[in-house]
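Same chain as my last thread, 221 residues:
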Amino acid sequence: GKGSLAVFDQGLFASSNFLVNVLLARWLAPAGYGAFGLAYSALTLLGVFHNALLGGPMLVFGPRKYRERFPEYLGILLRGHFALTFASGALLAALGFLLGWLYSPAVGRAFLALAIAEPLILVLPLLRRAFYVRLDPGSAAAGGGVYLLALLGSTLALRSSGHVTPETGFLAMAGASLVTSLFLLGLLRPTLTSNSSTIRAVATEHWRYGKWGVASTGPYW
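reply #2:
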């Protein structure tokens, strides 16, 4: 039963993003969808890097070492997530200005939109994995249903109002991720209070375990 729910959860999220990519490919001009696809490939790279440092190690340390303090542990990871994505968001914004100047204004705008949307888009996989630590894939699958409805609803609303662009595609993903993340946070209830020694210990463990995943990020992407 749990295995079936886990497969259903993975399928919901994968099919949601795939369906939106197909819709944008049909609705955008070729150059516009090319800009979206190029920025989306950068999001994929950041997602692999993000998982190597946060999500992957959480599946190892969460069920055992931090089982009795999981809300505190998850709160530390959420702070690490926003520190990491704000730094990468600044890099994306700088890259967007550079690409807009040297290469294509459409690509530059897509990267700038991704810089805004990235923290919200990448927090969702982290929260989903937290339910696997708790052996509760059903709640993750419920989040997948919320995400599918929110993403399709916002994308169709953009279509009907004539505002479908590469930038609004990323903002629709961010909005759907925000709605779903709030739903999942209400179930997980992480705590954001922890001492500095615990934070340093978690950071050290995640880096020690995840640095090998970081090294494989480029070839995997």
